[in-house]
Amino acid sequence: MGRYTGPKGRKNRRLGFQVFESAGAVKALDRRPVPPGPTVRRRKMSNYGTALIEKQKIRYYYGLREKQLRKYFDQARRMKGNTGENLLILCERRLDNVIRRAGFTLTRPQARQGIAHRHFQVNGTTVGTPSIVVRPGDVITVRNRSNLKGIYSEIAAADMSQRASWVTFEPGDLRAVVTQVPTFEDVSLPVDVGAVVAFLSR
User: Fold this and answer.
1) Domain Small ribosomal subunit protein uS4 N-terminal: where (predicted)?
2) Are 115 and 98 in contact (CB under 8 A)?
3) Are 98 and 167 in contact (CB under 8 A)?
4) Which domains does the chain have, with CATH numbers?
């Protein structure tokens, strides 16, 4: 399975959170903040069902395939510290998420598309892989093409939400610098990570 291309509004409603930030998906959750399907009395969610929803939040929020998520989980387990916190920090450090959190784009899918079309450079090298994990000192810029600079300058001037404190962004130069590794408190997704760890450890 590749990236998710289905109805984003339904997915937001199913998970009860704005994992997709496009205008239509946000409106769908605001208009009907209940899961899709027949409006009948629903049974209490099981522990398994609750953990599954929390795991799916991470998958769709960061645009991961199941295999990618489990790869990050295996890597997080080998790191020192809390496995769940390490998992989310690894996801936060993905290049597509950093571009979104810096303010280059309005959504993560938009950031992934820009990277896939080779609109961005990291430390002066053009990149095309959204899953690159950034490190402190990395410099992210838009390629020196007038049409790209025009597009991203307009977005950067309009968007002020969810900008990360661990990334310094210069809208005028379309330049972002990763100043430090994010902490668990910097993670932008509210999720019960303990339930996710228990689910992935099965």
Assistant:
1) 3-92
2) no
3) yes
4) 8-91+188-200 (1.10.1050.10), 94-178 (3.10.290.10)
DSSP one-letter code for 145: -
Place of tokens 């496009």: 22
Per-residue pLDDT of the chain (202 residues; tens, 9 = 90+): 356 666 666 666 667 666 676 656 665 555 666 666 655 556 677 888 888 888 988 998 898 999 999 999 999 999 999 999 999 999 999 999 999 999 999 889 999 999 999 999 999 999 999 999 999 999 999 999 999 999 999 888 876 666 889 999 998 899 999 999 999 999 988 899 999 999 999 8
Q: Are strands 175-178 and 120-122 parallel, antiparallel or unpaired?
A: unpaired
SS3 168: strand
